[in-house]
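Hi support team,

I'm filing this because I wasn't sure whether my run with s-citryldethia Coenzyme A finished correctly. The job status page said complete, but I'd like someone to confirm that the output block is well-formed before I use it downstream. Pasting the exact inputs I used:
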Amino acid sequence: MTATKGLEGIVATTSSISSIIDGVLTYRGINIDDLAEQASFEEVVYLLWFGKLPTQSELDQLNKDLVENAAVPSQILEQLKMYPKGVNSMAALRTAISSLALYDKEANEMSREANVRKAIRLQAQVGTIVAAFARIREGKEPIAPKSGVSLAHNFLYMLTGEQPEDIAVEALNKALVLHADHELNASTFAARVTVATLSDIYSGITSAIGALKGPLHGGANEAVMAMLEEIGTADNVESYVNRKLENKEKLMGFGHRVYKNGDPRAKHLMKMSEELGKITGNMNWFNMSTQIEELVTSKKGLKPNVDFYSASVYTSLRIPRDLFTPIFAISRMSGWTAHILEQYENNRLIRPRAEYTGPATAPYVPIEKR
Ligand code: SDX
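And here is everything the job wrote out:
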């Protein structure tokens, strides 16, 4: 038995949800480039869950279901108010989502129908929780979701209390589409491992949020923004990048386990970053980002991943840095729940082996003789 570090190149399951073949990403066979330009996030959610694009009436029904389920139990809001000051936003989300299970009478009901209903509730409520958390920590009251608007619109509305601009809704919708699913990434794998024990959907999502939080995965978008803030201005980019490379430190938002010739989502986010920079009149983050990209690509051969330009996109939308990864979670909720439903359909316990590297034999030494 020989271990493959990080399970690189190991095919651990079959899945018909998304594919990465020769650097091309598809959801249910539809190229991400087409979805990014044309689809609403809600259409993508439907596509991931049910395997086809919705008809207008199917989409209307999903939108209705999402709106009707967007409010969270009052106990969850009370709980958010009790979290310690300054708590990590992904830790808060992980805890709140886990707590949702306690107020869901169907939490342990395992039929497909019940799990689809729970997926709808989770997708509808995750944005409400993130927005409520953001307001409560600033001493503001959470804002109830409104009906008749998209998830992207509602999130921005619940965050600020103001009617969001169309361009902001459009940008966030596209970011949600681009982050929705990504084959067997670490958080999705974590979700599938958890539910493959026939544990419930909330447990799977809680595992996934925990995995997404890390800076090698979803947490990278916040780390990218921290890097941009640390660099400060375009003049400092070159010395910063050189120093990082010389010290063999990671440049956040670069590299990928699967893509070696670039992440197909990055170009969409780069374009959005430039457009939003022009609109807001602040091109600093975009200009610094392109300079960093040029240097890291020419010196190290690494290309930006999905997290790199999403940092400047969210900043242009005036979203606080520590909500970037929770926004990734809002989007990826669709992919996680689709994978959980798929895992339940054809389940087998996921239990690989470990290559043992400890001593071959060792005596038990009584405690008084150690
Ligand atoms: C996401 O998997 C998914 O699908 C994830 C995701 C999704 O949609 O779900 O796409 C979202 O998580 C994007 C990735 C976000 N993470 C980061 O941006 C963090 C920075 N990136 C790296 O740490 C790294 O590239 C990973 C974690 C993304 C991938 O790690 P791997 O595949 O284990 O690669 P590795 O760390 O073994 O690196 C291989 C080589 C090493 O150099 P050598 O020792 O061979 O000389 O590439 C170098 C690394 O040092 N390298 C980097 C680097 N990424 C790789 N060097 C500097 N900066 C980097 N960012």
